[in-house]
Design a protein that fits this description.
The complex is a heterodimer of chains A (233) and B (818). Chain A is of the alpha/beta class and 233 residues long. Chain A has 7 helices and 10 strands. Chain A is globular and about 50 Å long. By secondary structure, chain B is of the alpha+beta class. Chain B folds into 4 domains: 1-49 and 248-394, no CATH class; 59-243, no CATH class; 397-510 and 697-818, no CATH class; 521-688, no CATH class. Helices cover 55% and strands 18% of the residues of chain B. In chain B, strands 17, 19, 20, 21, 22, 23, 24, 25, 27 and 28 form a 10-stranded mixed sheet that branches. In chain B, strands 6, 7, 8, 9, 10, 11, 12 and 13 form an 8-stranded mixed sheet that branches. Classes of the chains: A alpha/beta (233), B alpha+beta (818). At the A-B interface, α2 and α3 of A face α17, α24 and α25 of B.
């Protein structure tokens, strides 16, 4: 198995009109790593997430997710790679309101035409504290609960990497802390790779490596508050 | 403040362009149809024919051409009401009168080279010599066998002074010598006054009286004197522009038809325009609700929010209204041409062009848009500011139970209305079916969200093993039932409307044709389209054939006076004229009494009509003939073939025709023998059995054209709403995309939703049409299966499925573009 979850090599993303959101960025994220990307608005951190997750394609450079080069794929093929290799957690949860909690969680598998691994699913549900809420509608849940559903959904397909875009942005500090605890435990206990984009430095501090961006480039790389620990492979 | 609100309004409107276009389109087409309808209705109410042949007279006098109703529109008389000839001599004695003419108009068809050449109508010589003897070659017709004609007609007929001309008039073919060719007077065949009186057969009456004032007396003064002289009679005296209406009888009946037509159209047009507009506004305001909630959150008052919601739609409506209204005037002009072509209204009745239809349409649409948009924004505007944003974020809402029960109640009511044909076989019952279809569709619209949610949830539970897109589509339909049901019920409305409206026309028509054919006992039908009717001479010649049994079958109109809640009312009935001689030739399926009793002032009535009116054989009822004369009719028979012959059949005594008839039925001889008997009369057609009337019934044609157009309007409105609603689903599609859906899968979700909407609409539409049509077929024709056209069902379903599929998939494709 490839040791790197995501590898970006000389990735540039320019938009029509001359704005270069990513300027020759290279980044290597190992499996089991908890990486935070910080930077001010307009620094290019969201574009980095979009390119690194295969939501968007770079103008030049290469993006390899879980050993698959995605930068030249069309959206349909990238979508297929994403649903096997990538999980998403967003500030706005992005749950499907017409589906129940359980249906939301298993949606990526259903879209991929796979059956859920019931032991894995039960474990995830228990870990995220959603037992008993599975038949509720997302609109009946609190913000923290919704974000836990999103976490669960992001992990259900056992992806190579989970991207979290401001996962705590819509939550109060107590709930935010518990969601961050959850993310941390995924990294520690399950060896899950997590790339988190945030402008909240306290949240970034939970990561083991913090990449700072400005003007479309990585300007600083630092260790997080917690010492890097090699997870059992 | 309004300026700032205006800026906000504009800024948010640009982002909602799609749904605003839908609103604008609904207003545009609605205004188009409403303006045209109001314009035709106004012509019916206020239209005035210009003066024609008698335009030179200062004063015209005629009998009333309508029967007044209490608190309702007058019913026009289709035949000229007579003015006693004694009035002519009475007026001639008044001071200030230079000339008085009692005018007569009667059919006169010249024959040239053995074929009828309809050129002009017949009049008396004094009508040509108005006000002075016209320029002419030859001399005025004096003897019985002489006539004068205008130069244009003379050229067309190839005759000159001294030549002879055969004319079918007064029921016979006679030969006249041309005494003069006139330069100046309007087209006409002018006979000597004595001959004209004989041919017109008015028995001491004239059609109208024209009066010329002596020099020094104004028309108005003279009219005043005439009114005084005629006080105590109901005769009308007109000067100036009002003379046109007295001169033209057809203008009066044309106006009546226009009022009836526009009245019946207005209902369905307003209902459909309202439906399309309200659903477009619903989608538009729903699309805005997030913005409105945010504006509310930053301190706008509920009133301001509602005003903002209404402002965009009103602006859009105001922009397109002038175009819709202008188009409506053009459409009214085209409709007028069409009606004139069909012979529904006379060409001399001009379309009234006034600002009234524009004002009515503009006021109506602006008011509806304002009220409906404010209504739609009511919920968002009333929520506490902080909740508003959260509430709009969670879009699926539970549809209300009250709505469900109201809607189901309406559907049950509609079913009851549709059952009327089961108890009454008359054509009036058919109206119940059409109305039932509309009421049922309104019921479906009201109950739609609940029904859709229940059905889609049921299907979704059974879709666990379907592919992910199919499964998602059903879950979406169930969760967004309010959104989906607007489109679904709109499409269902199109199906129901198309099917019920068409079958409501074709089923009675089929019954009519079948009964008419079944009632004719192997007879020949003699008609004379070229002569305007079979002349009495032909009737006499046919009667002279040994072994021939001959009967007249004519058409006329009678008015049926009755009391409604103590008020005098009158209904107009186009009726078939049959006499006792038709016994054995026409089988009306007489239940009581006998056809032999159809003489003098007697009538036969349909069984349903008799039951409804409480009439028995021997019973009497007041009746008004086509020229306004009142009689007491006696019921001679009650018959069963009501579809073929309507509510009433009248004896020849109640008809005004004395020398010309729509058709003559002959049995006992073959067609060749009948033709031989008629050899001296050109223009007569002998057909075996009942000739198929190739004539399009203008009311049926109009109904089908209007329903077709409205159908297109509904479909356009639904398509627009579907496009706008799908375009708003970017976020929803994005969430699915983050969960791993590929673009083909997302398109498949939209496609499956469109398919289910289309199928649901077809099922609901057909379901709502089925029972009324079943009742209609059973009640009218005795068979539950209506006669068709059955191709319409798959055709309408195909159109509905296509509209649903194309609008959703196209919009989804666009919403999915990054």
């Amino acid at each position: 198995m490839n040791a790197d979850a995501v590898v970006l090599s000389s990735v540039t993303r320019a938009y029509p009109g001359g704005v270069t959101a990513l300027d020759d960025v290279s980044l290597q994220v190992q499996r089991g790593e908890f990486l935070a990307v910080v930077g001010q608005s307009g620094s290019g951190k969201s574009t980095l997430l979009h390119c690194a997750s295969g939501l968007d394609t770079p103008t030049s450079g290469s993006v390899v997710i879980g050993g698959t080069e995605v930068s030249r794929m069309n959206e349909t093929r990238r979508a297929k790679v994403r649903r096997e290799q990538v999980g998403f957690i967003f500030q706005s949860y992005n749950l499907v309101p017409s589906l129940s909690v359980e249906q939301n969680i298993t949606l990526p598998l259903r879209l991929a035409g796979r059956r859920p691994d019931s032991a894995w699913l039960a474990g995830l549900v228990q870990r995220t504290g959603l037992t008993g809420l599975l038949h509720r509608a997302p609109s009946e849940l609190s913000g923290g609960q919704r974000q836990r559903v999103a976490v669960c959904r992001a992990l259900v397909a056992r992806p190579a990497v989970v991207f979290a875009d401001e996962p705590t942005g819509a939550l109060d500090s107590v709930t935010a802390a518990s969601v961050l605890d959850l993310l941390e435990s995924l990294v520690d206990d399950l060896g899950q790779t997590v790339i988190m984009v945030t402008h909240d430095l306290r949240a970034a501090g939970r990561a083991r490596r913090v990449v700072t961006m400005a003007g479309g480039r990585i300007t600083h790389v630092a260790a997080g508050h917690r010492a890097p620990v090699r997870a059992a492979a | 403040m309004m300026g700032e609100m205006g800026a906000i309004c504009w800024a948010t409107a640009r982002r909602r362009a799609g749904s605003l276009v839908a609103v604008a389109l609904a207003v545009l087409i609605g205004a188009f149809a409403v303006t045209a309808t109001v314009s035709l209705g106004e012509t019916g109410l206020r239209g005035q024919a210009p003066t024609g042949r008698l335009g030179g007279a200062d004063v015209l006098i005629a009998a009333p051409q309508e029967v007044a109703q209490k608190e309702d529109i007058d019913v026009p008389l289709p035949a000229r009401a007579p003015v006693p000839s004694t009035v002519v001599t009475q007026l001639a004695a008044l001071p200030g009168v230079s000339r008085v003419v009692g005018d007569l108009t009667f059919p006169a068809v010249p024959i040239r080279d053995g074929a009828p050449v309809p050129a002009a109508e017949g009049h008396g010589w004094s009508s040509a010599a108005l006000p002075a003897t016209p320029a002419m070659t030859g001399r005025p017709p004096a003897a019985t066998g002489e006539l004068a004609l205008d130069a244009a007609s003379a050229t067309r007929l190839g005759v000159h002074v001294g030549a002879t001309l055969d004319v079918v008039t007064g029921g016979t073919r006679s030969t006249y010598r041309i005494s003069s060719v006139l330069n100046g007077p309007p087209p006409g065949l002018y006979f000597s006054d004595a001959e004209a009186a004989r041919l017109a057969n008015r028995a001491g009456a004239v059609d109208l009286i024209a009066v010329w004032a002596a020099p020094g007396t104004s028309g108005e003064t003279l009219a005043g004197r005439i009114r005084t002289a005629l006080s105590g009679t109901d005769l009308r005296v007109a000067t100036g522009d009002a003379r046109g209406d007295l001169e033209s009888v057809a203008a009066g009946t044309g106006r009546g038809t226009l009022i009836a037509l526009s009245g019946s159209l207005a209902g369905v047009i307003l209902m459909i325009a309202g439906f399309v507009l309200l659903s477009a506004l619903g989608v538009h305001v729903a699309g805005q609700s997030r913005d409105l909630a945010l504006i509310r959150a930053v301190g706008a008052t509920p009133r301001q929010v509602r005003r903002l919601a209404a402002a965009q739609a009103t602006l859009a409506a105001a922009v397109v209204l002038p175009f819709g209204i202008a188009g409506g005037y053009l459409l009214a002009g085209r409709a007028w041409d069409w009606f004139v072509g069909l012979g529904v209204i006379p060409a001399e009745l001009p379309l009234v062009l006034s600002p009234f239809p524009a004002l009515v349409t503009a006021a109506l649409f602006l008011l509806v848009v304002q009220l409906a948009a404010r209504g739609a924004a009511m919920r968002v505007s009333r929520l506490p500011a902080t909740e508003a944003v959260a509430a709009t974020a969670t879009e699926p809402q539970s549809p209300s139970k009250v709505r469900a029960w109201t809607g189901l109640g309406l559907i049950v009511l509609a079913t009851g209305m549709a059952a009327v044909p089961l108890v009454s076989r008359s054509l009036v019952a058919v109206a119940g079916t059409a109305t039932a279809g509309i009421v049922a569709v309104i019921g479906l619209t009201v109950a739609g969200p609940v029904l859709l949610r229940a059905t889609a949830s049921w299907l979704a539970r059974r879709a666990e093993h379907r592919s992910a897109p199919g499964w998602l589509a059903l879950h979406n339909l169930a969760a967004y039932a309010s959104r989906g049901s607007g489109a679904l019920t709109g499409l269902a409305m199109a199906v129901t409307l198309a099917i019920t409206y068409t079958f409501v026309q074709t089923t009675p028509q089929h019954g009519h044709d079948t009964e008419l054919a079944a009632s004719t006992r192997g007879a020949l039908t003699v008609t004379a389209p070229g002569l305007g009717g079979v002349p009495a001479q032909a009737l006499a010649q046919l009667r002279g054939v040994t072994g021939a049994k001959v009967a007249v079958r004519d058409q006329t109109t009678v008015l049926w006076p009755f009391k409604e809640q103590g008020k005098d009312r009158v209904d107009s009935y186009p009726v078939t004229v049959l006499g006792s001689d038709a016994d054995g030739l026409v089988d009306l399926d007489v239940r009581e009494g006998a056809m032999t009793g159809l003489t003098g002032d007697s009538i036969a009535v349909g069984a349903s009509f008799a039951r409804f009116q409480g009439l028995d054989v021997g019973g009497k009822h007041a009746l008004i003939r086509a020229d306004g004369s009142r009689v007491t009719a006696t019921v001679a028979a009650i018959y069963g073939r009501e579809l073929g012959y309507g509510d009433m059949v009248v004896s020849p005594g109640l008809s005004l025709a004395r020398d010309q008839f729509a058709a003559v039925l002959v049995s006992g001889v073959d067609a060749a023998k009948a033709r031989a008997a008629l050899s001296g009369l050109p223009g007569i057609v002998v057909t075996e059995g009942t000739p198929k009337s190739g004539k399009v019934n203008p009311h049926v044609a109009l109904n089908l054209v209007v329903v077709g157009a409205l159908l297109a309007y509904v479909l356009l409105g639904v398509a627009n709403s579907m496009v706008a609603a799908t375009a708003r689903r970017r976020e929803e599609f994005a969430a699915l995309r983050f969960a791993g859906a590929t673009p083909p899968q997302l398109r498949a979700v939209a496609r499956q939703e469109a398919m289910w909407s289309g199928l649901g609409a077809c099922a609901a539409g057909l379901g709502l049409s089925a029972l009324p049509l079943l009742f209609l077929g059973t009640g009218l024709l005795g068979t539950p299966i209506a006669p068709g056209p059955w191709w319409l069902v798959p055709a309408v379903c195909a159109v509905v499925l296509t509209v649903s599929y194309v609008s959703v998939t196209a919009a989804a494709r666009r919403a999915l573009r990054p």
